[in-house]
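Q: Here's a chain of 292 amino acids. Please give me its 3D structure as tokens.
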Amino acid sequence: MLPRFGYLRPATLGEALRALDDYAGEARLLAGGTDLLISMKDGLARPKYVIDIKQIPELRTLRVTGGSGLTIGACVTVNELLAFGALPAGMTALREAASWLGTHQVRHRATVGGNLCNASPACDLAPPLLVLDATVKALSAKGERAIPLKDFMTCPKETCLARHELVTEIVVPPADGTRSGFAKRTRIRGHDLSVVNAAVALSVDGVSGGRSGPRGKQAARLRIALGAVAPTPLLVEGLDGLDPGDEAGVIKVILAAISPIDDVRGSGLYRKAMVRVLVSDLLKKLREGGSK
């Protein structure tokens, strides 16, 4: 049973920001509601007011921007992202992650912005957006700020958003010359929360015919992000200059960066083992030309 609450449905961003100001600390934003309403039923969230923002036009844009980048409105649903036929080349990991997220019915309600703002360590959309250098745009009455996604989630279920801010869009820069992919492991077949997930983005220069770096090594840009192995989805640091073919070296850097825990979905040791498997499989696929 849901607790009693006041329901507000602003038609514009200005109205939504005024509502956040009026009920600061007492309100929660409703986009898809797939996380918020469950938390309210379980007594984990008890807002006095719910501000429904899903029909504000500026939050529902989905477009390719100059240079083949991508702008995703915060209230774009996961199914709308999956149905978007103009997803730029190089962003395959984002589509693959979206297809893994929940059931069709959940994806019909769940939003891209909501998935990130929920700040689950096992968030499926965060790893591909991390390896694609995504930025979160946040708006308040004081103005707009751009937050690198790697700095957006601060701990489980917490972000760096102030009480008066809301996310308007997620901006992904052009991914020309990039191959990317996503994979996850779950407890059961079908749709389930990630026990561990991974996204990898690899520059084409680093796969074949690339530039030569010091001592004749190919210049490569390798980016790897993981979920459910740290308090927040993690963009692995220290991969610059590593040969994508040196899986042992890549895995060594990754294992030094993660801190998976034991919980009801899996042990820390199992998560470490699955990180090896997922990353190795993705690297092999991308080196061989998959997920363009």
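Q: Can you summarize the key feature?
A: The two ends are 46 Å apart (CA to CA).
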